[in-house]
Amino acid sequence: MTPTRIAPPRFAALQWLFFVAAVILLLYFLGPILTPFVAAGILAYICNPLVQRLRAWKVPRTLAVVLVMGGLLLVSGLLLLIMLPLLEKEISMFVMRVPDWIDAARTHLLPQLQQWLGVSLEWDSQALKNLLLSHWQSAGGVAGKLLPWLGSSGGAIVGVLVNLLLIPVAMFYLLRDWDTLVARLDELIPRHWHAKVTEIVAEVDGILAEFLRGQISVMLLMSVYYVVALWLVGLEFALPIGILAGVLVFVPYLGMILGLALATLAAVMQFPSFGGVLLVWAAFGAGQLLEGMVVTPWLVGDRIGLHPLAVIFALLAFGQVFGFFGLLLALPLAAILLVTLRHGKAWYLASSMYQKP
Predict the structure, then answer these.
(1) Each residue of 267-299: pLDDT tens digit?
(2) Under 8 Å between Cβ of 121 and 113
(3) Which three-class secondary structure string do you get for 190-208?
(4) Distance between CA atoms of 212 and 225, rounded to whole angstroms?
(5) Nearest CA to 249 among 283, 295, 210?
(6) Nearest C-alpha neighbor of 229 from the set 262, 263, 257
(7) If we measure between CA atoms, which residue out of 215, 226, 209 comes closest to residue 299?
(8) Which of 33, 73, 31 is nearest to 330 (CA)?
(9) Burial state string for 114-126 with b = 16 or more CB within 10 A and e = fewer than 16
(10) Are 34 and 21 in contact (CB under 8 A)?
């Protein structure tokens, strides 16, 4: 009896299937190590068009990379200089207002609780205020209390710092050698697949470029909206909260939820009546409608072909499987999958399996 042989095309398909499975398994186990390199790759992909534009002006590539990374570092530093002092001031105001809230709760809330529950409740507000103030004044000794914890967790902290330092280093080399790396990857593509792979890569690149450009535009526009809207409402911390809410628009609903929580906290501390809080809520509600119905469809829209539900599912699914590393890869992999499904659908509709009566 002659043993059955696997047809060469089927054998090649099995080889590629095992190869893809091995790559996915490797990515799963090396996720924490690869995270800074993936982050650097995404930043390099975003910044490469700026480097190419400087190259068109006859700027040497290394100098162009330094200029682009320096500009990115400058913008990040300015954001930190704006955000951190105002955040520290907001926390200080919060701690100063807590004793007043304790007195207001004892005066208004405690009688209501006694009436609803039918029990007598005792509340020593002065003891609570003294406890809070004593802990706040002793905050200067927190560093000393943290030293034992830092000693036991020193390895993890060093690992985080090393990963953070690896991102700009890897980004510099990726941007400097971008064209060379792309050319080497192109040489590895099997020649009989080269045309189709090049076509798919071009489509993926177009989708990602449109998505990133659109999202950056949405982030800038929504940051301006939230800052202006909260400033018109009269919120003291309109600038940092508006910038944070606008920048985090990139992650679905995170910017709105976090910005709304911080703005509500600031409004409760600042405004004497609940009307100010309602105005803040109205500003965020209008911003959510503006983003979902006008800004995102206008600046991103159908140009990328990624439905908002697909974006949310990709972020949740890849984040669940690969952690933070998966969040970094979610949208690129979703774009690749989208283009692959498009070509697979076209192949299926043109196949005899579909057209056979």
Answers:
(1) 877 777 778 888 888 999 898 888 877 777 677
(2) yes
(3) CHHHHHHHHHHHHHHHHHH
(4) 20
(5) 295
(6) 263
(7) 215
(8) 31
(9) eeeeeeeeeeebe
(10) no
